[in-house]
Amino acid sequence: MITPPVAFREMCGRCRRPRVVCYCAHLPLLPTRTQVLLLQHPREQHMAIGTARMAHLSLPNSTLRVGTDFSTDRVVRAAIEDGPPAYVLFPGPAAVDVSALPSDRAVTLLVLDGTWTQAAKLLKLNPALAALPRVAFAPRRPSNYRIRRQPAQFCVSTIEALAEVLEFIEPGHTDGGARFDALLAPFQAMIVSQEHFAHQVRAHRHQRAVPGPRAPRAPTLPMRLRADWSHLVCIQGEANAWARHDPAWQSPEIVHWVAQRLATGESYEAVVAPRRPLGPGTPDH
After folding, report:
1. What's the predicted TM-score (pTM) here?
2. Cα–Cα distance between 193 and 189 in angstroms, integer?
3. Are 114 and 122 in contact (CB under 8 A)?
4. Which comes out higher in pLDDT, residue 194 or 260?
5. Which of these ranges, 44-48, 154-158, 201-205, 274-278, has the smallest mean pLDDT?
6. Where would I find the H helices in 41-200?
């Protein structure tokens, strides 16, 4: 018995997608002063609906590297050591808002591409990257990555993050923020084509019922803290308090306030004169 030949789909050599869902016609060309270095986790490289390559094809001053250990990567090391000041786009306690980056000179922006777990692993495996200053941002709008579930409402794709950040750090920034929305044209085209094949074409690999939209997972406390880190203020108050069963018990009253904004280190302290006799343990506190 002769096995019939398998019909392979024609692929685009540029975007590496099948011709029927090629997004190359929608790719803009957006020169930037910023040197963008995309560091992609190997598993993300094989995601057909990933956006790092899409961003790389649209930004001529960008470089895409794939791997987990970049300590011996000459391109990455040169960008960090010899290029403009380097920053890692990744949220965290020490991250500053992207609006705080210098606006009068070029910078190197390192973008980790992968799931949150994969991106965190890249930082852990590369001490040189982890030692760089970090920047973060608050998205102007929720992610439109409808064909891929996001871990939290404030999470966006790599190309959406770049559209947001470049709007701030490129010359001629405006509060309206629309210049780099052109970067999202191929992203939108990819989403529309994927939804078309999933819902209308019903090819063999799309025979499974397409689930309805899932309710977004409620952000966990760490996620909420990361998202609002620049606004987070920790406050502690000490009271002039007596033991409940002390015969000389007095009603408690606040006598000491301290506060600190963790993102900037700003602090506040005030001692309030007590109106009642001090409890035995108050001076120690």
Report:
1. 0.63
2. 6
3. yes
4. 260
5. 201-205
6. 42-45, 52-58, 74-81, 116-125, 127-130, 158-169, 185-196
Q: Which two tokens stand for residue 145?
A: 């990555």
pLDDT of residue 130: 94
210 burial class (0-12, 13-18, 19+ CB within 10 angstroms)? exposed
Planar angle of CA 28, 30, 34, nearest 5 degrees: 150
Q: Enter the tokens of residue 71.
A: 């300590």
Dist. CA 149–CA 155, nearest whole Å: 10
* Residue the block writes with tokens 């001629």: 172
Buried-state track 165-179, b at ≥16 Cβ within 10 A, e below 16:
bbbbbbeeeeeeeee
Closest CA to 18 of 210, 202, 197: 197
Question: What's the CA gap between 148 and 204, in Å, rounded?
Answer: 20
Which secondary structure element, helix H or strand E, spans residue 257, and what is its range? strand 253-261
Task: Please name the helix (run of DSSP H) or strand (run of DSSP E) that holds residue 227, with its range, or none.
Answer: helix 221-227
Tokens for 56, please give them.
């790389």
